[in-house]
Every structure is written in structure tokens, then in C-alpha cells.
């Protein structure tokens, strides 16, 4: 009798283990930072498409010359282009549909989701509604690997904030490709290869000329 009980108990344990092993594996939901990074990549791609549309309409990416054309066409007063918010506002003035594309979560700025209030134009892309830095006045023939949109870049620096996207930066290049790139923990820089950083002036894409970085308004 005693041996039978042990056998029954052993069989129950084996059955339990088999059931445990055969149970479906429920994937762990992605962390918030990974989701924020994907959202930033998607929004950056939409900005890139808006930049291409602006170029098609007015001859180049947003700049002082396209400002004159948009102002004359739309009957608006020209405004200064000093922050990435201003450049993206010019995209809206030229026909882009939504300011929601400027958002990426960056608590240190801090950013918040755009309210999509774009009229009057002065209220579009208000402070806190843009998280991307923009490299302005790039020539039309800039190399495909030239960075165009970057986040989360610490304003006034070439260093990236490691916290928002769990040690990653979001970079969109002139060819429209969007990448999640690792931020070095020791200095906050992003490497394009073993020797050069993203904004290294010796990199072929910069041709020795410092990029005109336009940071989000703060």
C-alpha cells in the first residue's frame, strides 16, 4: 500500500511537470522605454516625409528662403527659425497636417503630447511639444548617412540623454532610414564606428563643417 502511494505521488509530480513545460509562454510586455523609442522612430519618419513634401513644394527643406515663399503664399508673417519647433512650425504652415509628429517622450525637457492646436500658427509646436533636434540647412546633395533628426539630444550639447530610451538614441538620416543607436555610458555620445562619433567633423558626411543643430524650445 505504501509503495502504491509513492507511485501515485511520483506520477502526479511527473504529470505536473509535463503540464508546466507544455504551458504556453506568455511574452513579457515591452517596457515603456522601448515603446517610447518605437513611437519616437515612427514620429521621426513622419517628420522626414513632411520634410520631403516641403522640399517638393518649395525647393528645399525648411530655411529662410522657403519661409519667404510660404509667407507669401499663405499670407502669414515670417517668423524666426531658431529652434526645431520653429522649423517644424514652418512645415505646418506649408501644408503638413499635424503637430503630433514632433513628439517624443523626453522628461528632462520636459515634453508633453501636442494638443494639435495649430491655429493661430503661433500656438503650433509650442514649447514642450517637440523632442527632436534638427540639423538645419543641409545641402540637397548631403550624403545619405548624414544625421537629420536626433533624439534625445541634451540641448546645447552633442551628448544624448541615456534615460528616456534606455540607453539608446533615435537617429534619422538623409536617406530616410531611422535607427536606434546605442549611447555610450561614459560620455553620452553615439558612435558611428569604432573611431568616430555621430557629430565627428572628420566624418565624411560633415566635410569638416559643424552641423547647424536646432534644439527643441525650452
Automatic annotation (TrEMBL):
Keywords: Membrane, Transmembrane, Transmembrane helix. The keyword Transmembrane applies. The chain crosses the membrane at residues 6-27. This is Uncharacterized protein. It comes from Luteolibacter soli. The lineage of its organism: Bacteria, Pseudomonadati, Verrucomicrobiota, Verrucomicrobiia, Verrucomicrobiales.
Amino acid at each position: 500500500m505504501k509503495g502504491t502511494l509513492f507511485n501515485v505521488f511520483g506520477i502526479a509530480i511527473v504529470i505536473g511537470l509535463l503540464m508546466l513545460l507544455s504551458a504556453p509562454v506568455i511574452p513579457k510586455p515591452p517596457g515603456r522605454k522601448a515603446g517610447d523609442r518605437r513611437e519616437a522612430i515612427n514620429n521621426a519618419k513622419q517628420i522626414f516625409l513632411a520634410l520631403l513634401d516641403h522640399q517638393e513644394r518649395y525647393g528645399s527643406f525648411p530655411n529662410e528662403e522657403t519661409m519667404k515663399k510660404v509667407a507669401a503664399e499663405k499670407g502669414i508673417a515670417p517668423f524666426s527659425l531658431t529652434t526645431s519647433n520653429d522649423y517644424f512650425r514652418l512645415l505646418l504652415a506649408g501644408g503638413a497636417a499635424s503637430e503630433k509628429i514632433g513628439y517624443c517622450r523626453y522628461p528632462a525637457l520636459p515634453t508633453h503630447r501636442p494638443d494639435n492646436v495649430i491655429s493661430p500658427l503661433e500656438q503650433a509646436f509650442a514649447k514642450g511639444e517637440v523632442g527632436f533636434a534638427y540639423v538645419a540647412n543641409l545641402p540637397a546633395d548631403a550624403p545619405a548617412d548624414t544625421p537629420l533628426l536626433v533624439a534625445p539630444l541634451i540641448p546645447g550639447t552633442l551628448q544624448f540623454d541615456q534615460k528616456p530610451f534606455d540607453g539608446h538614441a533615435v537617429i534619422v538620416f538623409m536617406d530616410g532610414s531611422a535607427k536606434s543607436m546605442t549611447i555610450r555610458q561614459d560620455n553620452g555620445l553615439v558612435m558611428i564606428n569604432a573611431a568616430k562619433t555621430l557629430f565627428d567633423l572628420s566624418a565624411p558626411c560633415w566635410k569638416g563643417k559643424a552641423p547647424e543643430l536646432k534644439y527643441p524650445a525650452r
